[in-house]
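Need residues for this backbone.
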């Protein structure tokens, strides 16, 4: 009986450990210039790939903004609900081989995501080689 309970407790704790050590979830984005929180992005998995969409804009004046600088299907679409992370795949501890959209400029960049502990996510957008880009740190929303 003790062994059964021990195994059950270990199984449950491993399930919770796996959930907190994943990029899946809601993340608060931080403005590079002001250091203030900008939005909440929900990262999810679909068909084995990672995607992220804006689910909340924290500046009430910008909640109804549209992506005027975007091209293609995103042109003039509301930023709220916009899928900005597209098609990343897991490669060891990193997620890469996908794209990230900057809705402010409408530019599309290559992207990589790396967990920094359980509650921080390093999001790198770059052109060409990852050396030429910038990294933002997003915080997990609890």
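Answer:
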């Amino acid at each position: 009986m003790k062994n059964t309970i021990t195994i059950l407790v270990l199984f449950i704790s491993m399930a919770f450990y796996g959930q907190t050590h994943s990029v899946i979830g809601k993340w608060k984005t931080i403005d590079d210039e002001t250091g203030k929180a900008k939005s909440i992005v929900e990262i999810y998995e679909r068909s084995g790939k990672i995607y992220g969409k804006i689910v909340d804009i924290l500046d009430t004046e910008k909640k109804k903004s549209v992506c005027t600088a975007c091209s293609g299907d995103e042109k003039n679409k509301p930023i709220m609900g916009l899928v900005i992370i597209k098609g990343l795949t897991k490669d060891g501890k990193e997620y890469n081989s996908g794209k990230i959209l900057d809705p402010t400029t409408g530019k599309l960049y290559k992207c990589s995501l790396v967990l920094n502990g359980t509650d921080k996510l390093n999001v790198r957008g770059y052109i060409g080689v990852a050396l030429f880009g910038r990294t933002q740190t997003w915080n997990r929303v609890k």
